[in-house]
Design a protein that fits this description.
globular; alpha+beta; 5 strands
């Protein structure tokens, strides 16, 4: 269990330095009273950094990239990264998190890359029992978000079940409950 605000704060200096190199203003919008989240700290941090670096890369100089933390529903916390870049057309939007895919934006923006940052972020989010979403409109920027399960038992079990169903909807899953053995025996 981790405090989501502290997780963002732990990466803030790295993100701020990266944004400043392109004269991008980095902002945070954080809702009050967020629950703890059930994540691997390093995987969360790498996902956040990849999304913010991508937003910086595709934003024009002197624009704003906003990081937002909120609880869209009970049992989950959402981290969103919003940029004011060129946005993605519907075809690019469908494939933008696939490996080696740059969304066709490199010719429009003059940027180059391997197209791995978003796919790595998506894979790390999924390992953390979360899911990644993207919203974008050509000419209006993009928002990349991921949900994380809250740190309570019910939310973690629900996220685990959803991950299993998404991976293998026809699979049979068994659970085994083990009681701790009496140490005196």
């Amino acid at each position: 269990e981790h405090d989501p605000v502290e997780l963002v704060e732990s990466a803030w200096q790295t993100l701020h330095t990266r944004a400043a190199s392109k004269h991008i203003r980095l902002t945070r919008t954080i809702d009050d009273e967020l629950p703890s989240v059930y994540v691997d700290r390093d995987k969360f941090r790498r996902s956040l950094i990849n999304l913010v670096v991508n937003a910086i890369k595709f934003s024009p100089e002197r624009e704003v990239v906003d990081i937002r933390l909120n609880a869209p529903s009970p049992g989950s916390v959402r981290l969103s990264v919003r940029d004011n870049g060129p946005g993605l057309n519907p075809e690019a939007l469908r494939d933008c998190v696939e490996r080696f895919h740059e969304g066709g934006c490199h010719t429009l923006c003059g940027t180059k890359g391997l197209g791995l940052g978003l796919s790595i972020a998506r894979d790390l989010v999924e390992l953390n029992l979360g899911s990644m979403m993207v919203q974008s409109t050509p000419g209006s920027g993009s928002t990349f978000s991921f949900d994380m399960p809250a740190g309570d038992r019910e939310s973690i079990i629900r996220a685990s079940k959803n991950r299993i169903v998404a991976r293998a909807p026809e699979a049979i899953v068994s659970a085994l409950r083990v009681k701790p053995q009496d140490p005196c025996r």
